[in-house]
Design goal:
The chain has about 450 residues and is α/β, with parallel strands linked by helices. It has 13 helices and 20 strands. Strands 1-2-3-4-5 form a five-stranded mixed barrel. The chain has a five-stranded antiparallel beta sheet with strand order 16-17-20-19-18. It is globular, with a radius of gyration of 24 Å. It starts with a strand and ends with a helix.
Length: about 450
């Protein structure tokens, strides 16, 4: 068994804090997949590059309503794909090369790590060579998550894609069938439908993106149902066929056929594959590693961050947790804690969606005395210029104090428009002060936020 000062499992956000503070340590870095983690290789970054191309296609299709006649001559799927991964893959390769050849204090193990004891692990190499045993004074688990595939789909034997694979297809599907109603399903439905595929979405819930504020989720479900073939509130009873000719039977007796099946039914934290009990690492009922605000686990000297432990499967959260872990490892007598009070999220579908804080249903469940205001994008000058008829900004605040409780937007640039609201919540700026204490550029789109703030019955 080779002993290290520090063992880090995962090369996504787990790789980001290994800077000059740890230059004097003997570090083991373990990766069982693609170097760089989910966000870089199969998540945030490549998907948003596809989304941007899809947004451009939708802009062209809708240009006529502004008096601009335009049409799409052709969608070059392989060119889009190669643009994405022609940029992504070299970054992953460069990061791998830097750690393997440019970091003399780091030993990289390519394989799957699982615990055999307290801060002791075995690594099953991906190249099939012999198992390697390692240990560390301290261990950071940043092993991420993986797509969940329903057992029924696995048992059917019908080939399927996940978010890990679908972006590297050799051809654009004729008819893409998506299982799932969350953010991954909604983003890929937008991507493939915009680029020319027929899309069917199958979800057990009667509402897409049901974790969001009900006003936004219902608005998006209405828009999506007009754009895609949405089979909502349905259970799968049978899956048969081959990869390019399959049939899905639903509980109402209807059938869906297609040539490409995408499973986007959520993600599972990878801790269940690491023999955590051997290390004394506790987990939540959903499989996430239990970590305190300092990112410490129940096992002495073992830390966790990112999707393997966090309730928020978001890259900006994983990066924030990595900063906390890096600081705490380097400064054990001055620990910092993560702040998860106001975690924002965006869904890069069409229209774009962004949210932060409590939903209205959560406010009701907590018995809060609140007020909410919904402002349509089309009510402000720039939204009117855009001919927007579906966008809205919903802000929730505490009555009496004006304390911002939540913000939820659906519409163009939602992920950007929400940022000042995140800032206001983080630093305690109340709704009235935020609305009246600064200039709002006219006629810019942020006026929809200003008007929503002014409309609150505080």
């Amino acid at each position: 068994m080779r002993h290290h000062d520090l063992v880090v499992i995962g090369t996504g956000s787990g790789n980001t804090f290994l800077d000059e503070r740890f230059a004097d340590l003997d570090i083991a870095l373990v990766e069982h997949g693609i170097f760089g983690g989910t966000c870089l290789n199969v998540g945030c970054i490549p998907t948003k590059m596809y989304v941007y191309a899809s947004d451009v296609a939708e802009i062209v299709r809708g240009a006529g309503r502004y008096g601009v006649d335009a049409s799409i001559d052709k969608v070059r799927w392989t060119d889009i794909r190669d643009r994405v991964f022609g940029r992504i893959d070299p970054i992953s390769d460069g990061g791998r090369d830097y750690r393997v050849n440019g970091s003399p204090n780091v030993t990289v193990y390519f394989g799957h790590a699982s615990f055999t004891g307290e801060r002791e692990l075995q690594v099953e190499p991906t190249d099939g060579s012999g198992t390697q045993a390692i240990s560390g004074d301290r261990v950071v688990v940043a092993a991420g998550s993986r797509p969940f595939v329903p057992p029924q789909v696995v048992a059917s034997g019908v080939p399927y894609e996940t978010s890990d694979t679908v972006m590297r297809l050799d051809a654009l599907p004729e008819h893409l069938v998506i299982l799932g109603g969350g953010y991954i399903a909604s983003e890929f439905a937008h991507v493939f439908s915009s680029l020319g595929s027929k899309v069917t979405v199958i979800a057990r819930s009667s509402t897409l993106l049901r974790h969001l504020d009900a006003t936004v989720a219902e608005r998006f479900t209405e828009i999506a149902s007009a754009r895609w073939d949405c089979r909502l509130g349905r259970e799968i009873t049978d899956v048969t066929g081959t990869g390019d000719d399959f049939r899905i039977t639903l509980d109402d007796g209807t059938e869906v056929t297609g040539d490409t099946l995408l499973v986007a039914a959520g993600r599972l934290p990878n801790g269940d594959r690491m023999n955590l009990p051997a290390a004394g690492v506790d987990t939540h009922p959903d499989g996430r590693i239990v970590a305190d605000p300092a990112q410490r686990t129940s096992a002495e000297g073992v830390w966790a961050l990112g999707d393997v432990s966090s309730p928020h499967q978001l890259k900006h959260v994983a990066n924030a947790e990595a900063k906390v872990v890096g600081h705490n490892l380097a400064n054990p007598d001055a620990l910092r804690e993560i702040d998860h009070r106001y975690v924002p999220a965006a869904v890069f579908t069409d229209p774009q969606i962004a949210s932060v804080g409590l939903t209205e249903q959560e406010c009701r469940a907590q018995g809060l005395d609140y007020t909410a205001k919904v402002q349509d994008f089309g009510d402000v000058a720039f939204g009117w210029a855009m001919e927007d008829t579906t966008g809205l900004c919903k802000i929730i605040a505490e009555k009496g104090t004006g304390r911002l409780l939540g913000a939820h937007l659906i519409g163009p640039q939602a992920s950007t428009l929400i940022q000042p609201l995140i800032q206001a919540m983080q630093f305690g700026l109340d709704a009235r002060t935020m609305a009246t204490g600064q200039y709002w550029i006219h006629p810019a789109l942020p006026e929809v936020v200003e008007n929503a703030l002014l409309g609150l019955d505080i």
